[in-house]
Specification:
Blueprint (H helix, E strand, L loop, with lengths): L8 H14 L12 H8 L3 H13 L3 E4 L3 E4 L5 H23 L4 H14 L4
Antiparallel strand pairs: 1-2
């Protein structure tokens, strides 16, 4: 995973794990790597991963099972809920950037319509 300098690393990792759940790469009930393993995979300090797991547990994305490990929540609506959350975040970033460039809501809509009409997205 490549990290950017605009956002704290732990937030980027949270976003990535949520994306993986939303896309079905991590499925309900699947065990996630231990904190040490995840830290090695992501090349970050184990304290960063511990923070990530704690936040995701508070948000109901992950659950800990004593003596067994950490797992993706078995909530049936989790993936769809995360997909909507990520869509909202992405739309907000895009709209904010377009507004900062001086575009009106109508102009932003026109740009999106033009993009969709000229790019195949499958």
């Amino acid at each position: 995973m490549r990290y950017n300098d605009r956002e704290p690393i732990y937030l980027q990792i949270i976003h990535e794990i949520k994306r993986q759940v939303a896309l079905g790469e991590l499925t309900a009930g699947m065990q996630v790597p231990t904190i040490k393993e995840q830290a090695a995979i992501m090349r970050v300090n184990p304290n960063t991963v511990a923070r990530v797991y704690a936040v995701l547990e508070q948000e109901g994305v992950l659950t800990k099972q004593k003596g067994l490990g950490t797992f993706v929540s078995t909530s049936t609506s989790l993936a769809e809920s995360l997909k909507r959350e990520l869509a909202e975040t992405t739309a907000m970033r895009f709209a904010s950037e377009m507004v900062s460039l001086g575009f009106s809501a109508r102009e932003i809509q026109e740009h999106v319509h033009h993009f969709l009409a000229h790019h195949k997205l499958s």
